[in-house]
Amino acid sequence: MQADTLITGATIITVDGARRVIRDGAVAFTGDTIVAVGKSADLASIDAREVIDGRRFVLTPGFINCHVHVTETLIRGFIPEALPFDEELGEWVIPLYKSHDAAEQAVSAKLAIAAMLRSGTTTFLEAGTVIAFDEVMAAIEDTGIRARNGRWTEDRAWDPSADAEALTRDALSALARDLERYPQDGRRIAAWPNLIGHMTATDALWQGVTALATRTGTGISAHMSPVAGDSEWYLANTGKRPVEHLADLGVLGPHLNLVHMVHIDAREAELVAQSGTHVTHCPGASIRCGYGVGKHGLFPEMAQAGVNIALGTDGADNHDMMRVITLMAALFKDARQDRSLFPAHEVLEMATINGAKVLGMADAIGSIEVGKKADIVAHDTRRPEWQPVNNAVDQLVWSADGRGVHSVWVDGLRVVADFACTMIDEDALYDEGQAMADAVLARSGLPLMSEWPIL
């Protein structure tokens, strides 16, 4: 057998059907596809153009970030911590967000992608909040990452004088154009018809976008119920809780990814499980924003009912999925005082194969298996947080973080090597990003609020 690349001597966490962890393992790939996985001795006869000594590495599938706002990065650290949820969104995040020009959105996205790649994320699902859609798509293409991207989409006419039907028609037309220009036809970067969610989409938009996703073989992702406000609005305006209302509309199902889902009740969790709807949890955002997930979240119950739970990093503060899996592994152990909840191997599945299921790509990504895409992360164990290496899965979750990611391959292309992006000029990007952040924040008129003086 011949291959382009052969990595030998590594510990491989495959996340394959048997969930094998292979010590002194090897993986070979040709083009964008894995062609062999096994013990190094069994793959020794492979003739590879490039042979990499992997004895210092733990190899994992690339992480899949199922909810990230890639164009929020320029406002990182600027939003005051203690703001109420509605004030934070309405008076800070959204106005700042919508004030970006196309170039600023593109650079913001590249900053987020550099952070994701450097910490082992090979695929992301954008939160549906891109404004300069074509410019951001072009920026993503140049980085080497795999992505499903969605534009800012809502249609509820908060102004009574607005043409409600036109808002819905325009929203659906824009999404249809995106899918035509960037189809999900096997390419690395494609569009998804995502929604902002919460209470911003009318019933007509929910049903229209569901029909669009069904016709095009894509999925839909939408925010729902991080705090009690979504449920209160739906109860007041429809007489039912959000997931119950979506069930009545006929829009639940395996095409749909609902994000946050902290303030739901047992009936909503049951409807999610029965319909095959996916749920993405963002534990870091939930904890930072004080959503009350430890008190209210029904994630153990949803997992027990068979709901496919994936993970996301959410906003600008953190793009390291390894920090997210540690939080997920810890959160409900403490909240329920039950150390058996969400062990390391389960949260690693959430960050890999479960994310692939959300994207409808479990046959192509999410594990290191023959025939799948060569999306592989090499974690350097010659670091103090890794040594000694005893149980690689547990240590990946509890001891390590994204700073130990040495190399990353997407589609067989090495996009991170020796702790640096290969397709992004990081120094130039950081300089450009700082200058743009200064400009965005200066013209916002909002103050930089700090408890300690910044001189």
TrEMBL record:
It holds the Pfam family Amidohydro_1. SUPFAM superfamilies: Composite domain of metallo-dependent hydrolases, Metallo-dependent hydrolases. GO terms for molecular function: hydrolase activity, acting on carbon-nitrogen (but not peptide) bonds. InterPro entries: Amidohydro-rel, Metal-dep_hydrolase_composite, Metal_Hydrolase, MTA/SAH_deaminase. The keyword Hydrolase applies. Transmembrane segments: none annotated. Residues 58-412 form the Amidohydrolase-related domain. Keywords: Hydrolase. Belongs to the metallo-dependent hydrolases superfamily. ATZ/TRZ family. This is Amidohydrolase. The lineage of its organism: Bacteria, Pseudomonadati, Pseudomonadota, Alphaproteobacteria, Sphingomonadales.
